[in-house]
Design a protein that fits this description.
mainly beta, Immunoglobulin-like, Lipoxygenase-1, 3 domains, four-stranded antiparallel beta sheet, 21 strands, about 0% helix
């Protein structure tokens, strides 16, 4: 595989027996990673080194076999909080994985009244889909075409007020993960901690509890969406106001909770998107055994 920045190849490497690679790069910026292996279609992936001494974990990429053919790809767009389908979403496509800028392929679509989209005769390979709709933050998700792939769903989030944070966990169709859970521990109003997860889905600062009667109900932390139906899946947490203290977010592979050596989470294709003050940050699962991934720690 090769590494290029601003169109110029700067280095090359080869994956090890586990499919992993590591490379020290000298320049900050957006890199294009190009993967090639006999018997597989070539693939590209974008990754951004934003700060000095940063360790960038790019998402696990599955190369498609040369036998893949063009076909129809389709899916459904839903609201990240309500889970309702979203109609009228404009969709455009770029070649490669996690490619959020530059030229598109020219393929476009708009979701129908049921939130569905479909592209026909898509050449085999990986693509990045961009979504756009008034009242929502522009979103990005990856799709693949290999003789036709359906059920490539995604969620989009409404535009957030300043100071509000939303955390969206997703795992795709065909994922090795079945039931992934979002966990968030937060500072409460008693110099202690509160744990948001599937059993405790809401916390109100005004009452320092999970219930609120006659108080400021807008000042809260909620697990808006708890998905237990297998892949594809989405879980969403909203923090209406970030406060001083420690926030710790993690993803737990509930299905394999008793097996610390499991690699189902590592190969799940899951990703976490954090929306905060007009910035979207994406976290990918490292290729390591285990059933727990800590991907956000704020203080």
């Amino acid at each position: 595989m090769s590494f290029a920045i601003y169109g110029s190849t700067v280095d090359n490497t080869t994956t090890d027996s586990s499919g992993d690679f590591s490379k020290s790069l000298n320049s900050l910026g957006i890199y294009t990673l190009t993967y090639s292996k006999s018997g597989y279609l070539g693939a590209t992936q974008s990754g951004t080194l934003a700060t000095d001494n940063q360790t960038l974990v790019v998402g696990t990429l599955s190369q498609l076999a040369e036998g893949c053919l063009a076909g129809t790809v389709s899916g459904t767009i839903t609201d990240a909080v309500s889970g309702n389908t979203v109609s009228g979403v404009s969709i455009s496509v770029r070649s490669g994985v996690n490619v959020t800028s530059g030229s598109t392929t020219g393929t476009t679509a708009t979701t129908d009244s049921s939130g569905n989209y479909s592209f026909s005769s898509v050449s085999a390979g990986w693509y990045t889909v961009q979504t756009s709709k008034s009242g929502y933050t522009d979103g990005y998700f990856n799709i693949k075409s290999c003789s036709g792939v359906t059920g490539q769903d995604a969620s989009i989030t409404t535009t957030l007020s300043s100071g509000t944070m939303r955390i969206v966990l997703s795992w795709p169709t065909g994922s090795t993960a079945s039931d992934l859970d979002s966990h968030l521990t937060i500072p409460d109003n008693a110099s202690s901690r509160y744990h948001i997860f599937y059993s405790k889905k809401k916390f109100y600062y005004a009452t320092n509890s999970s219930t609120c009667s006659g108080c400021d109900s807008s000042d809260n932390v909620t697990l808006d969406r708890d998905d237990q139906n297998g892949a594809p899946g989405t879980e969403t947490i909203t923090i209406t106001k970030i406060r001083s203290g420690i926030y710790r977010y993690s993803v737990h592979d509930f299905t394999n909770r008793g097996t610390s050596s499991s690699t189902k989470l590592a190969t799940s294709g899951a990703s976490v998107k954090v929306y905060y003050n007009d910035t979207t940050t994406t976290f990918s699962v490292p290729n390591l055994a285990g059933n727990l991934m800590v991907c956000l720690y704020l203080r």
